[in-house]
Queue: 4 jobs
Job 1
Amino acid sequence: LLAVVAGRISHGLNGRLLTLGLLASNLGDVFLGLDQINLFIEGHSSFLVAHLFYILLFVRLTPKPLQLSNRQKIFVGLLVIYGLSLSIWLLPVLGTNATPALAYAATITFMTATAITVCWKRPWVALGAILFTLSNSAIAIDRFLIPVDGISYFIWPSYYLAQLLIATGTLPLIRRHPPDQRNPLADHKIA
C-alpha cells in the first residue's frame, strides 16, 4: 500500500526512487511470504534492489558538500562497527552464502549510513533505515546462528515500521517541492 500511495502522490526522480524502493521491498515480501526457505535468495535479492533505490534517493538528498554533524558521525561510526561485528560473527557459519550475505550486509549498512547523512528535519527516515537494519539482522541471526522462537514478532513489525517511517518521512516533503530541486528534503542546517 505504501508503494501505491508513493506512486500516486509523489513526483520527480526522488518520488520514483522511493516508489521503486517500496515496490522492490513488496516483491521481497511476496517471495518470503510464499516460501521463506526456497525463495530466500529471491526475497533478499529484491530487498537488495530496494536498498539500492533507497541509496540513490538518499545520496540525491544529501547536502553537497557533505558536512556531517558530530551526532551523524557517531551514528555512522556505530553503524559501521555494528555491521562489521555482525558480519564477523556470521562469517564462520555462512559457508557458500558468505559472498552474497556479506554483499547484502554492506549494502544495507551503506543504505542506513546514507539515510543518516541526510539532514532530515525529523529523524523518521534515519530511524526507519536503522529499524530495517535491525530487522534484517534478526533474520540473519535466526537463520544462520541461533534459531529464536518468536523472532518474527520482532522482525515483521520492525520491518513494516521501518518502511512506514521511510515513506512517511519523505513523501510529504517530496510533494511540497518541485521535482527538479536537488535536495528538497534536507534541512541544510547541520546540528
Note: The chain has seven helices and no strands.
Job 2
Amino acid sequence: DTEEKHLIRWLSKRLGQPVKPPPLADLGFRLIGGRLVADAAGPAAQYMYQDKSKRRVTLYVRRETEARNAAFRFASEGGLSAFYWIDSPLSYAVIGQMEREELLKLARMVYGKSGF
C-alpha cells in the first residue's frame, strides 16, 4: 500500500534508521497507522495495530543512545502493559491493554523481526 510505504520511508528518515513495522497478522493484529513522536532521546516512531475486536497495540521504536543490548523487561500500570528491550541501534516497546502472556506473544513476534 502506497500510504504505508510513504509512512515507513518518512519515519525511517526522521529516525535515521529503517523502522518498517513488522506484520502481526498471524496473531490477529493489522497495522492501522503510525506517527512521529518526541521523547527525551529524540524522535521516535509509534506504530498502531488493531485486532477484529478493536483492541489496540502500539509498537514504539527509537534510536538507542546507549550502545548495549538489553533483555526483555515487563511493566504494567493503570491497565496497560508493556514489554520493552534494546536491540542496538534501536529500542522497542510493545504496549497494550491485555494479559501479560498475550502481549508477550506479540513482543516475541516483534523481537523475532527486530531490524525489520
Note: The radius of gyration is 13 Å.
Job 3
Amino acid sequence: MADDVPKGPLDVVKELEALERFDARCGTDTGIESPRPSGWHMAIAVATFSQAMSVIAVRPEEFVFVDIGSGKGRGVLLASEYPFKRCIGVELDPDWHAIATKNLAVWHPPTQRCTDLEVICADAVTFEYPQEDLFLFYYNAMAGEALGELLNALK
C-alpha cells in the first residue's frame, strides 16, 4: 500500500497543503495540532480515507461508524459521506473534542449521506461502545501500551 512508503519532506508539505485546503473549503479546523502522548495529531487525508473506503467489503448502511481517537473530527465528517447508520467520534482530549463539536455544526456538504453524527469526549479504552454492528476506524490515535489496552478492551 502506498502509505507504507516512507514520506519525504515534499510529501509531508503536500499533505499539509491538502489539509489546509480541506479546512478552507469546508470552514472547519481539522488539521495539525500539538502533540499528544503518542505523537502529533494529523487528520487523515481525504484521498487516504477515500482509498481505504473503496476497498472495504461491507455495506456501510449496516454499521455504526466509530472513529477511535477522533481528534478534531475529520474521520467522522468524511464518514458521513457514506450511508452509515450513524457516525461517532470518541476523543479523550477535551480541547480537540470542543473543536470537533464546532466542526460538526458547520458540516453540511451536499454529498452527506449520514446526518446522525456525534462526537463524545471519552477514553476509547473505557468507552461503552454501542451494542450494534460497528465499523471501527483507527488512524494514528495512540500507540504502545495505550493501543494494547484498547485492543484488549475491544475483545
Note: The chain has five helices and six strands.
Job 4
Amino acid sequence: MVDQVPDRSIIFYDQLGCGRSDSPEDLNLYSISNSVDDLEAHIKALDVPRFHLFGHSFGGVVAYEYVKRVAERPQYEQCATNENSKGHICQSTIISNSSTSVAMSNEESDRILQELEVGLDTQDASTVNEAFWKRSQCR
C-alpha cells in the first residue's frame, strides 16, 4: 500500500491481540466497542486533523463502527462542515474484505462445517476445524 500511495503518510497499527500488540488473557477486552475505542485513541494521540480510513477484514468492522459512532455524535455535522474545526475528520472510509452480515457469515461457516463433517465422516472437532481452516482460511 505504501508503494501505491507514495505522497501520503500511511499509519498501520496492530489491533489488540495481533502482531506486536498486547495479548491480554481477559477475553472481555476483545470487543468491537473496545477496538473502536483503541482506534479513536490512536487517532487522537497522532493528532491527525483529517484522514482517510482503510479497514481490512475485522478492521473493516472497526472502521464502520468508528464512522458510525462519530456520525451519531450531535456535534459531528457542525465539525465536519467547518474548515476551522479542531476535530479529527474522517474524509473517507474504505472497507475491504469484511463481512456485511455476521449472522450470514456464521450461517455459512456452520453450513461448511456440517458439509465437512459428512465428507470426512467424522465428528472429531479438531479434524473438522483443521479441514475448515485449510479450505476457507489458509489461502
Note: The mean pLDDT is 83.
